[in-house]
Specification:
Elements: H1 4-9, E1 17-20, E2 24-28, E3 36-42, H2 57-73, E4 80-83, E5 99-103
Antiparallel strand pairs: 1-2, 2-3, 3-5, 4-5
The structure holds adenosine monophosphate.
């Protein structure tokens, strides 16, 4: 499978890693949309939120236990936003489940 984020997880494409464990990988977004913009991805390929099932949901729960630690490490003391884009209308450009962590300033109160 030709997947950009699988290649990043495997180290075939370089990234600015901020966190890694056996289940997930986090790295800085190459085109940040906030002063802090990090992506958290499961190591196992899942296409998007639409492909989360009762069989693979444990990694999603795990990611959501890790996100607050990453946010703290990144200095996001005043809060932050988590975004996951799904499909064409959601403007998902990389078809590997990922959660954007956005912060470092007061974000827009508009989400779309
Ligand atoms: P989405 O549009 O929700 O699918 O998000 C994909 C994100 O991946 C975008 O914010 C891109 O800027 C980011 N991105 C694409 N290529 C890379 C890369 N090589 N390293 C880090 N982030 C990337």
């Amino acid at each position: 499978m030709n997947c950009l984020f699988c290649a990043i997880i495997n180290g075939d494409i370089p990234s600015n890693k901020v966190y890694e464990d056996e289940k997930c990988y986090a790295f800085l977004d190459i085109a940040p949309q906030a002063p802090v913009h990090c992506l958290v991805v499961p190591k196992a390929h899942i296409g998007s939120v639409d492909e989360i099932t009762s069989e693979n949901a444990d990694v999603v729960a795990h990611i959501f236990t890790v996100i607050p630690k990453i946010a703290k490490d990144l200095g996001l003391v005043g809060g932050y936003r988590i975004v996951s884009n799904i499909g064409e209308n959601g403007c998902q450009s990389v078809k590997h489940l990922h959660f954007h962590i956005l912060g470092g300033e007061k974000l827009s109160d508009r989400m779309a």
